[in-house]
Amino acid sequence: MTAQITVLGLGPGQAAHLSLAGWEVLKKRPYLFIRTKHHPLVEWLKKQGITGITFDDYYETSQSFEEVYERITQRILTE
């Protein structure tokens, strides 16, 4: 069985800007990784019953964006 990763941009923050295809992806994924809990759409997603793992702690504890993104990549690949 081959694992699949889907990357989806949440857009500028309003639910109206999320495509129908994007919404369908969000509803069906067993794991949802969200770059930051500070994205404006995250609260709306919670109200829809959709939550995920955020990486805000990586931004706070890493020395560079390169380190942040490497850590995020490693975390996703180990799931």
Number of helices: 4
Structural class, by secondary structure, is mainly alpha
Secondary-structure element order, N to C:
HEHEHH
Instruction: Give average pLDDT, whole number.
Output: 92
What share of residues are in beta strands? 5-15%
| Poorly predicted runs | none
Helix content: 40-55%
Rough outline: globular
- Count of β-strands: 2
Radius of gyration, taken over Cα atoms and rounded to an integer in Å: 13 Å
Distance between the ends: 15 Å
Largest sheet: 2 strands, parallel
For the biggest β-sheet, the strand order reads 1-2
What does this entry look like structurally?
Helix 2 (41-47) links the parallel strand 1 (33-34) and strand 2. The chain is globular and about 35 Å long. It has a two-stranded parallel sheet. The mean pLDDT is 92. It has a domain at 28-78. The two termini are 15 Å apart. The protein has helices spanning 20-28, 41-47, 56-61, 65-78; strands at residues 33-34, 53-54. Helices cover 46% and strands 5% of the residues.
Question: Summed up, what is this model?
Answer:
This protein has 79 residues and is mostly helical.
